[in-house]
Specification:
The chain is of the alpha/beta class and about 160 residues long. It has one domain. The chain has six helices and six strands, in the order ββαβαβαβααβα. The strands form two sheets. A four-stranded parallel sheet has the order 3-4-5-6. Strand 4, helix 3 and strand 5 form a beta-alpha-beta unit. Helix 4 packs across helix 6 and helix 5 runs antiparallel to helix 6. The longest helix is centred in the C-terminal third of the chain and has 23 residues. The N and C termini lie far apart (about 55 Å).
């Protein structure tokens, strides 16, 4: 692959990468247009391994939906700034495809660990984070979808109750 290019979704060709300032400007204008009457709450979902937290926040996203596995330590500064700015996080902490679900505490611990890394109060975690499956549930069976959503709810409840202690 040539430097500065990314494959298209179709795989039939390659497109040059969009420069960050251009992407931020287009996304900002899109969010401003969609939210012009203040009736919408701009939530952006990103499946990329290198989530551009700062770019998405600066473009006007009020919430970001990401797979918790894609919040690496190398991004601590920009993720901390995003949290500090009050951006809500929809963090995928539950596997999204049919799998044996880990114990409840094992699902919650990565969220707690992330929060401890930043030094934010546990009650802020309960207010600012929505626990979700890691990504879309399109490949999961209906039975697993119900289990994953229940697990997400139970993890969120556990985090909320722990913050009250």
């Amino acid at each position: 692959m040539l430097a500065g290019t990314v494959p298209t979704a179709s795989g039939f060709g390659r497109l040059r990468a969009v420069e960050a300032p251009v992407a931020e400007d287009v996304l900002r204008r899109t969010i401003d247009t969609v939210c012009a009457d203040d009736a919408a709450f701009p939530l952006v979902h990103c499946c990329a391994r290198d989530v551009p937290f700062g770019l998405l926040r600066r473009a006007g996203a009020k919430a970001l939906s990401v797979d918790l596995r894609y919040v690496p330590k190398r991004d601590d500064d920009v993720v901390g700034e995003t949290i500090d700015a009050g951006v809500r996080l929809f963090l995928g902490a539950v596997p999204a495809t049919d799998a044996a679900l880990p114990p409840l505490r094992a699902s919650a611990e990565p969220l707690r660990g992330l929060w401890r890394r930043f030094g934010f109060a546990p009650e802020r975690l309960a207010r600012q984070v929505v626990v979700t499956p890691a990504c879309g549930l399109a490949g999961a069976s209906p039975r697993y979808v119900r289990q994953a959503l229940k697990r997400s709810r139970d993890v969120a409840r556990m985090l909320h109750e722990a913050a009250q202690e």
